[in-house]
Amino acid sequence: MLDELPGQYIEEVKNPFSSFDPLFKSADITIGNLECLVGTSGKPEDKPFTFRAHPRVIPILKEYFSAVSVANNHSGDYGLEAFSRMLDLFNQTGLRYFGGGKDIRSAHKPILFEVKGKKIAIPGYNEYLPRSFEALDDRPDIAWNEDGYVTHDIRSAKEFDKADIVIVFPLWGWESEKMASSRQKKLAHLMIDSGDDAIVGGHPYVTQNIEIYKGKPILYSLGNFIFNGFEDEESTTGWVSEMTFSVDSKINWVIHVAKLDKDGIPQNLGKLVAE
After folding, report:
1. CA gap 196, 128 in Å, rounded
2. Environment class of residue 138 by beta-carbon count within 10 Å: exposed (0-12), middle (13-18) or buried (19+)?
3. Capsule synthesis protein CapA domain spans which residues (predicted)?
4. Chain-wide mean pLDDT for the chain?
5. Helix (H, G, I), strand (E, B) or coil at 159
6. pLDDT digits over 195-206, tens only?
């Protein structure tokens, strides 16, 4: 989230990603959830919290991320036209994105990468209200986490995009809940049964449990990364997932701990879990 204090940090030409600079810049691919609109237009929707970052954040996003997910409950905070303009801005500046588009078809297309002979597909989905942010045939916005859409997209990535690896990036779950809900578990298992290879989730503002299902990792929630306004230990401790892939496409992963300061800026506390 690059509004409020993190946005001011960037305006002051400070780098909120500096503690993770070596890790991010050593990766072949870096992916993040962009939990705000980027732009200067639109009017705030009638909801408790709305987030909008200035376009000045785009260069630093491009510096650290191969692509960002816009599939969340804040991308549409300033209306459809502002969302559409944001996508135009990203296209003009070369910031790659996924989980949203000018219509439902483009919103559900995964972002594709080819790394060392492996094709990787990453689709993004939102499942947290309001559903009025969902892209339709004739409406721009985000990809919704509907079971039928998700299973179709995963199978399509494997069959038509010829992806060796699919990693689903969902925004789901209840805020402040440390354990994944039955809905999250059911959908996660359905994703893997449909051909998904890993799941990296977010939204609850806290980290959640990790599950291995049929040998595939499910990181239900990474918690917060850059986000101010929290004081408790659980909400100011987030994770960064580092994944590596073997020749046979097996996924290994490591968790790096991010501790947020009073301004919502993360400090790298090192590795937590290795598998």
Report:
1. 21
2. exposed
3. 3-229
4. 93
5. helix
6. 999 999 999 889
Q: Which is nearest to 218 in space by CA: 206, 203, 201?
A: 201
Angstrom distance (rounded) from CA 96 to CA 109: 12
Segment 214-272, tens digit of pLDDT: 999 999 999 999 888 777 788 899 999 999 988 887 899 999 999 999 888 999 999 98
- Of the candidates 256, 254, 252, which has an alpha carbon nearest to the alpha carbon of residue 225? 256
Domain residue ranges of the chain, discontinuous segments joined by +:
4-274
Instruction: Residue 100: name the closest of 83, 122, 114 by CA.
Output: 83
CATH fold group of domain 4-274: Purple Acid Phosphatase; chain A, domain 2 (3.60.21)
DSSP lists the bridge partners of residue 113 as 120
- What is the C-alpha separation between 42 and 271, in angstroms, rounded? 41
Q: Which residues touch 237 (CB under 8 Å, ≥6 apart)?
A: 206, 207, 223, 224, 257, 258, 259, 260
Helix or strand holding residue 254 (H, E): strand 251-260
CB atoms within 10 A of CB 15: 14
Peptide bond into 130 cis (omega under 30): yes
Between CA 212 and CA 34 the distance in angstroms is 26
133: left (phi over 0), alpha (psi -120 to 50) or beta: alpha
Taking 70 as the threshold, does the pLDDT of residue 275 lie above it? no
DSSP one-letter code for 136? B
Quick one: what percent of the chain has pLDDT higher than 90? 80
